[in-house]
Amino acid sequence: MYITASLFNMIQKQFEDVSFQCLKMPEEPTSKVDASLLGSLIEAIVTKRNNYRIGLETGFNIPITVTGVIYKLYQNCGTLGELFDKSILYSPLVNTISKYTSKIEGDLFFHELEINPDFVCEYPIAARQLYEAQIGVSLQLFYSLTGKKISPLKVFTVYNKEEQKDKIEDYLSCPIVYGYNQLRLVFDKSILQLPILTASKELLPLMEKLIKSISYENQVYSLSESIKDYLMKGISTMELSLKSVAWRFNMSERNIQRKLQKENTSYQNILNNVRKELVSIYLHKNIPFSEIAFLLGFESQSAFNKFFKKHFNNAPSRLK
Description:
The chain contains 14 helices and 7 strands. By secondary structure, the protein is an alpha+beta fold.
C-alpha cells in the first residue's frame, strides 16, 4: 500500500506543529510513500491534538487545495459525472490505501469509500480520520468545482453513534446511518450533470498525461519537468513562491536553484512558461481575463496585466 509523496507532504504541511520523524521524502512528487508512514503520521497528529475526531473536523476546514492530486487533476472535466468516471480510473495510481466507487441506482447517485482492511487493522485511529475527513473533503470539492453547495440526501458511516447527538450530526443536515460497512454519500443523480466551472477539454489530456506517468515506476524526470508538472496540477490554488515549491520538493531554495541552473533554466522561467501555456488555452476558451488572472495564481489583476503585456506584447484589453 502506498500514497504519492505529494499527498503525504500536503497532509504533513497542514500539521506542521506535530513533530514527526520519518525518512526524507523523495524529491519527485509522484514517488511512492509506504502506507505505514501515513498511518504513523496521522496517529501522531491525533495524539498531539488529543482529538480522535480531528479527521471529521479537518475535512470541513482544510483548504481545498489539499484535497489535491486525486481530484484536482480532473477539474477540467466538463461535468461532475465525467470527474467521477476519471477518478475511478486513475485514483489507484495515486493512492492504494483508499478505494473509491460510484454507482447510480434509480434517481440516486452513490459515492463510496472503503479503506484497505490491512490498513484499518494496523492503524485503526488513522483509518477513522481518513474515513471521516472524506465527507467534508467531498462536499468542499463539489462546491469548489461547481460553485454550488451540494448536500447529501443521506450519509452512511462505518462507525457507531457515540452520543445522543454524534459529532458528525453537527456538520450534516441529513439522515445518518451508523455502523455501515463503508462510507457512502448519497445524492440525487442530477448532480452528475452539473458543469464544472472553467472546464477545458484542451487541458484534460495534459492532466491525464501527468497522472498516467505515476504508473511508470522507473521513469526519470528532470527537476524542471517535475516542477512544471507540479504547477500544472493546480496553479490557481497553490502557493507559488520558490520557498513553498522548494519545501514541496524537500529541497532548500539554494539547492533547487542550483539544480535548475544546471538544467539551463530557473524557477521563474518555469512558472512563466506554464502561465503562458495556460493563458493560450484559456483565451481559446473565451474565459474572462479577470478569471484567468485568478486561475494563473496572480495576486491582482494589475499583476496579470503586467505579465501579459510583457510576454504577449499587448495589454489584455486590446484583445477584446
